[in-house]
Write a structure and sequence with these properties.
Helix content: 10-25%
Radius of gyration: 23 Å
Oligomer: single chain
Number of strands: 26
Number of helices: 9
Structural class: alpha/beta
Amino acid sequence: MTRYVLIGNGVASTAAIEAIRDKDEEVELSVISKEQHLAYSRPLISYLLGEEVEEDDMLYRDEEFYEDNNVDLLLETKAESVNPDENSVTLDNGDEISYDKLLVATGGTPMVPPVEGSDLNGVFTFTEWKDVRTMRDYMNDHGVQDVAVVGGGLIGLKTTEALLELGKNVKVVELADRIMASTFDKKASNLLIPVLEEEGCDVITEDTIVEILGDERVQGAQLEEGGELDCEMVVFVIGVTPNTEVLEDTEVDIDKGILVDENMQTSNPDIYAAGDVVEITDVIAGERRPIAIWPNAQRQGEIAGGNMAGGSQKYEGSFAMNSVGVCEIPTISVGLTDPEDEDEYEIMKYIDEDETVYKKIVLKDDRLVGTIFVNDIDRAGIYTGLVKREADVSDFKDKLLDDDFGLIDISESYRDELMSGEGIKI
């Protein structure tokens, strides 16, 4: 009988399972996951660390999901390698699983810089459920109070927020000149840093840790620009790299991530890939790169699974998008938010520093290519849809920053697409 094998058990894989079963109820379906848990909501791990949700809240697919879809689920099992010539996957226990079609959805691997002392007890990354338990145990066992978080991006800020909820003293160290540097401009960053400082967090920008101090465990850190940090724990959250390891000894094309076409198919016709492990087309930047966000992974998994089972859907590309709350201040950033050459773009802004409100619109040739919203995100979905549609906003450009801007201001053709959902599927 035909067998499909999925490596990874995140959102891309669960979406692929559903898409496969929509088309084929009989094919054998196996999922290999190095983690011990059923599919869980990875964005919730910071809330679990901060004790804002319980472990029971983490799962978004239960055992019944796998049973109903007749999935052979192999947890705590690592796929060591793929042999495309034999259409087989070798597992860490030495077993081999054959496949007719394979999906690689292995996500990303957290980056840790080559810093002296990074092998000390008390140094962590934070991307998986197990990281919550190991960090909690370490903090409880050693009475940790002072923590250095290296990285001021989305994951870094959510980690910081969780640690603040636990009453820890947190110092964020960010190499760039601002927090959320990949999606925020300097103004948005400057609005949010005081919010973090009011919660007891120190924010250090344009600097990094070059050495972690201590004998067996963390007792401090040395900064590149001079001075030491008092800390008993260091958490590296500087991003992830696509986890392409399982295909690296094959002829499947890999650059920064696994290269796929619009069908989510690799250079090997029997192998598909989806999620944080792939390179996709950034429709705004006009280049291929990894874009590690949940909606992308879900959509890619859906398309990959359907096409594995004989479908013909095309992935339409995507763009950067982040939605994060910073100490109860909601923010959303979409697309190109801080262009290097502003002369080629039209920038529109609204700022109310007293209310910590910031709105920024980035236009090129009267087309919306990027937005930032801080503490006023009610209509962010409309703007996101316009970015997705590469909409010409010239007819209503003067209304884009109005408090009451809405669908009524948009041309009828765009309005119909947005209301049907076609303009906001990313």
